[in-house]
Amino acid sequence: MAIAFPHFIVSDKPTVESAIMVSKPSPVILTQDELKKIAAYKAVEFVESGMVLGLGTGSTAKHAVDRIGELLRLGKLNNIVGIPTSKMTHEQAVSVGIPLSDLDSHPVVDLAIDGADEVDPYMNLVKGRGGSLLREKMIEGACKKFVVIVDESKLVEHLGGSGLAMPVEIVPFCWKFTAHRLQLLFEEAGCVAKLRTFGENGKPFVTDNKNYIIDLYFKKDIGDLNAASDAILRHPGVVEHGMFLGMATTVIIAGELGVTMKNKQGLGSQR
Fold first, then answer.
1. Which of 46, 84, 124, 242 could form an S-S bond across to 89 if both were Cys, CB 3.0 to 4.6 Å?
2. Which CATH superfamily is 166-240 part of?
3. pLDDT tens string 203-219
4. EC number(s) per UniProt (predicted)?
5. Residues annotated as catalytic (active site), given as ranges
6. What SS3 string covers the chain?
């Protein structure tokens, strides 16, 4: 859906939330994808030559990867090493000329840029609706700075508040058993657990790690996020979940009022 978008200037001051607006009489009409691109390009301004970068996955992160490749071609960046969070991003990065490596060779990542499916007021995230949550969490958990790029439609009052999926990556063995246990775990929140499938034949979606994904849908707030995280991970069939708690250091939000940048400054991961 297209929305009105005034011209703007963004402040780089290290405040918790900052944006300087310059309105024009005739607003520019931008699509949601164009808003994602604006947020992605702003995030790439954090990139410096010589960095090891975590390269995110998804429709928003794709713009950031394209921009990094463009700056490398123009000679405005050099000596960049990228660590992709999925096979899809690996292919994209190769196509735009970004040199790649992995966490074995570069266990400390300077900066990661990625999108998110939900962002709560405390900068906690839901990620993984694209299916890459495990590699994303491994790489983004190893970075010094994690910049999240979203459009304002991803903002929620609490995780799960969009009514869309909160993914859990599980081993394929006895997946119905694991899904049932996960649903019972959040019964009070009205949880429904569904195996992610694709195509008309309904075959299970398989991650880059050869696992399945159970999507959890909540009707109510699940409460203490750290407790929920621990409870999910205690199930033996679970590999990882899509809640990224306290990991984001900066969130860049593109919306109808311009770009807002929120920085983590002593904020906890709980509401």
1. 84
2. ACT domain (3.30.70.260)
3. 999 999 999 999 999 99
4. 5.3.1.6
5. 136
6. CCEEECCEECCCCCCCEECEECCCCCCEEECHHHHHHHHHHHHHCCCCCCCEEEECCCHHHHHHHHHHHHHHHCCCCCCCEEEECCHHHHHHHHHCCCCECCCCCCCCEEEEEECCCEECCCCCEECCCCCCHHHHHHHHCCEEEEEEEEEHHHECCCCCCCCCCEEEEECCCCHHHHHHHHHHHCHHHCCEEEECEECCCCEECCCCCCCEEEEEECCCCCCCHHHHHHHHHCCCCEEEECEECCCCCEEEEEECCEEEEEECCCCCCCC
